[in-house]
From TrEMBL:
Record key words, sorted: DNA-binding, Transcription, Transcription regulation
Protein name: FadR family transcriptional regulator
Region annotation (Disordered) ranges: 1-38
GO-annotated molecular function: DNA binding; DNA-binding transcription factor activity
InterPro entries found in the cross-reference section: GntR_C, TF_FadR/GntR_C, Tscrpt_reg_HTH_GntR, WH-like_DNA-bd_sf, WH_DNA-bd_sf
Pfam families named among the record's database cross-references: FCD (PF07729), GntR (PF00392)
Residue ranges occupied by any HTH gntR-type domain in the UniProt entry: 43-111
Organism: Pelagibius litoralis
Ranges of compositional bias, category Basic and acidic residues: 18-29
């Protein structure tokens, strides 16, 4: 077994442990429900420790295979109780970020072992500045799911579901550029389409990847002040195709909408544009 160096960890900064820290505020999801895999409270001390360590792991400060200091040393470094640290490690282990073994210690697992659909892991990627493979992988996943969801919605949507999609689009039209309302209404639009697919798994995926969608929408809107306005025709094309029950037009319109969103995100992150896999257009 190769030797692993123990990672030096600076003390948690005081702003990370304040009870009025912004990360401790009760989270409100656009869908109105808390993600199912949320496994800790950001109001608790162990939750703040989990957030701090999780962000360091995802951000690369604690790379894969890093052996953490033992419990006594790490709790002293972070200036938290061993109980809080123990609970935080349990949270991160459940997410696939850490593994603890007797007489070996706690180490960081490889990225391949992480639960990439976990809302916290997704949020930490965006908070730590998303890397190129993450962004491209996220949009590949969206290209696999959302065009098919739009096509299914065109075939199966009810009048009520169509009204929900239209209401979300009209709310997007009214939202002031650069406001949180832009992101929230964009998310509502995409989730309403997945819900209208009349497939319980497709609908659940929308809630599961809500954090990823919010992150990508925020990056898209940050790319330029008029990103929200210029994306409206693409959203309208999807809505119109679903309204007239044209599945192939809905699929194509959603593909184009996602291509534009991806280009905006790559631009704001200063990443190169690359041709998308041909499989997305077959």
């Amino acid at each position: 077994m190769r030797n692993r160096e123990k990672a030096p960890l600076p003390t948690l900064s005081s702003h990370r442990l304040r009870k009025d820290d912004s990360r401790c505020r009760k989270e409100k999801t656009v869908s109105g429900t808390k993600p199912a895999s949320k496994t800790y409270s950001k109001r608790s001390l162990h939750g703040l420790v989990a957030h701090d360590l999780g962000l360091r792991i995802v951000g690369g400060e604690l790379p894969s295979d890093t052996l953490l200091p033992n419990e006594a040393d790490l709790s002293a470094l972070l200036k938290v109780s061993r109980t809080a640290l123990r609970e935080a490690i349990k949270v991160l282990a459940a997410k696939g970020l850490l593994v603890s073994k007797p007489k070996v210690g706690t180490r960081v697992r490889s990225r391949a072992e992480w639960n990439m659909l976990d809302p916290d892991i997704l949020a930490w990627h965006f908070e730590a500045a998303p890397y190129e493979d993450f962004v491209r992988g996220l949009f590949e996943m969206r290209q696999i799911i959302e065009p098919s969801g739009a096509a299914m919605a065109a075939q199966r949507r009810s009048k009520t579901e169509l009204a929900a999609i239209r209401a979300a689009y009209e709310a997007m039209e009214r939202a002031p550029s650069g406001s949180d309302a832009v992101v929230e209404t964009d998310l509502r639009f995409h989730q309403a389409i997945l819900n209208a697919s009349d497939n319980q798994f497709m609908g659940s995926l929308g809630s599961l990847i809500e954090t990823a969608l919010l992150g990508s929408f925020r990056l898209s809107s940050a790319s330029r002040p008029d990103a929200h306005v210029t994306s409206l025709p693409g959203h309208k094309a999807v809505l119109d195709a679903i309204e007239r029950r044209d599945p192939e037009a809905a699929r194509s319109a959603m593909r184009e909408l996602l291509r534009g969103a991806k280009a905006d995100v790559l631009a704001v992150l200063k990443l190169p544009q690359k041709k998308e896999p041909a499989a997305f257009y077959n």
